[in-house]
Amino acid sequence: MAHENTADVVIIGGGVVGSAVAYALTHAAHPPRRVVIVERDTTYREASTPRSAGGIRQQFSTPENIAMSQATLALIADLKQRFGPDADVSFREQGYLLLASHEGQGILRANVDVQRANGANIEWLDPARLARRFPWLDVTDIAAGSFGTTGEGWIDPVALMTLLRTAAIAKGCEVRRAE
């Protein structure tokens, strides 16, 4: 029997990221015997997750970050099958708009190339296209924009955290209030 103060994996923080790690570990083909989340605020009232806007985007500059977002999108697409018919994180797929000055235009263009090469559906917008698509936007000092037309938007981060943590606990993960 394991000692009370030992674990195969200890996760510091049980917000959405810690809960996602616990979920992945406890649902792995060969899960660790003992997974423990150490959380100082088990009510999660003071945690960063409930304070988050819950944004999901693929507009990153590295393939690794894009892949992590795509894994989250796959999880959301499969939510009801994984967590039951009532599982919902209120995904609002409304896109993300990033803008660049003349100085930053090259960086934005390079990022869009990386995003597209990694399967993200990102639209490149020059000032004229920005003005047509977003007529409320003053494009006077904007050189370009990128808009994620699919796979970008907002979720309820607390709902996702709760689904992940509850499923991890059901597979034996423990949550310990400590710092």
Radius of gyration: 20 Å
N-C termini distance:
24 Å
Q: Strand-and-helix sequence, N→C?
A: EHEEHHEHEHEEHE
Number of helices: 6
Main β sheet profile: 3 strands, parallel
| Counted beta strands | 8
* Overall 3D form: elongated
Portion of residues within helices? 25-40%
Which oligomeric state applies? Answer: single chain
Q: Can you summarize this structure?
A:
This protein is of the alpha/beta class and 179 residues long. The protein is 36% helix and 17% strand.
Plain-language structure description:
- This protein is α/β, with parallel strands linked by helices.
- Helices cover 36% and strands 17% of the residues.
- The protein is built from six helices and eight strands.
- The strands form three sheets. It has a three-stranded parallel beta sheet, covered by helices on one side.
- Helix 1 links the parallel strand 1 and strand 2.
- Helix 1 (16-26) packs parallel to helix 6 (157-170).
- The chain is elongated and about 65 Å long.
- The relative contact order is 0.23.
Notable traits:
three-stranded antiparallel β-sheet, elongated, three-stranded parallel β-sheet, alpha/beta, 17% strand
Topology, please?
Elements (H helix, E strand, L loop, with lengths): L8 E4 L3 H11 L8 E5 L15 E2 L6 H15 L1 H5 L13 E4 L4 H13 L4 E4 L1 H7 L10 E5 L4 E2 L2 H14 L3 E4 L2
Parallel strand pairs: 1-2, 2-8
Antiparallel strand pairs: 3-7, 4-6, 5-6
Helix pairs in contact: 1-6
